[in-house]
Amino acid sequence: MNQSFIWRRQALKFAASALCAAALSRTAQAQPSGPVRLALIESMSGPFANTGEAVFRNILWAVERVNARGGIKLPGGARMLALERYDSKGQNEEALSALRAAIDDGARIVLQGNSSATAAALVDAIDKNNERDPSRRVLFLNYSAVDPVLTNERCSFWHFRFDAHADMRVTALMDVVKDDASLKRVYLIGQDYSFGQAVLRESKRQLGALRPNVQVVGDELHPMGRVKDFSPYATKIIASGAQAVVTGNWGNDLTLLVKAAREAGFNGTFYTFYGNALGAPAAIGDAGIGRVIAVADWLPNVQTPQSEAFYQSFRARFPKAADDYVHMRMQLLVESLAQSIERAGSTDTVAVARAMEQADVTLAGQRGRMRAADHQFQQQLVVGMMDKLGAPGVKFDVEGSGYGFRVVKTVAAERAEMPTTCKMQRP
Q: Is the pLDDT of residue 112 over 80?
């Protein structure tokens, strides 16, 4: 082989390497360098505005924590998270309009949770958008919409749920119900939409299996967000002879229900999904001591040093007593997103979704992992009982009310986990 040929070959190799490097440089420069936009679609006005604001504070705090540590590390450089609010006004059509606006604004991560009916509408719309417009695919991260169908027969590759679904929460509550030998009569009441219906349906099923000697003396659904006076319902509860009420109500529908029951003289127990926040403890008052039970993924009075430090940090960020409702699952959601984007090495929607199927995060001693089969987050649940601030196990109260929830049962993630009927269709 003559020397000139060798020189020519080396020159060609050098030119190819230079072209490759230039192409890589152009690709890196072409990659988006702005923040990763998160679109929060929630009721920021109307009867459930307080729930939307509570969510916003939680997600904002989680986003701030990620950004404070330098953002999300990607090959092209760190990316910050940017949280943007879209008001659904508590209406499905408004939520769908907000989704379209968020996509047009460049958001590819959508967050929502307060209302399973809205979540179902968003899942359908996102499925259609992602099939029709692959260049603008969207992920839906759900922190509170707990209708079981969303990770069962209506499961979607683009949807991830970070809250325990209704059947899982009912199972945790029934772990307490089954131990109450004195309980003979139960009244079931809920909001008349998919989630409220699911709570009542599963409660009846589990009561029949675990406590067949317990009589269901009321099984009632009411319009969501439209009842201003729950005294007629309270009168029926008392007339039924019920010793306990099981409800999945949330927001003002819960606060007004328990307030009416208290004023009517109901002395029984409330088994709730959300009785530990958003005005409910203050509305119930002393009548709730030892009588209001709530299930959650975490409570401020979980007695570990890590848990206490976590709660104190949130209170330092939002010092107003009315703002103190912190959701651990929302913090784990944002941590899972950050972890998944870094593992994917990009913000490509499909790559992030595949990485999120393997999400496994821990914060303040609380661990959660995503189940790939149906995109249902798995974590331990706790059941708390209302008591006065300062009582054993109640170091922290709720919203400055003077009442808090002591943990009476911890349900391991393995115990809370339930089978799924999801048949996931993946791209």
A: yes
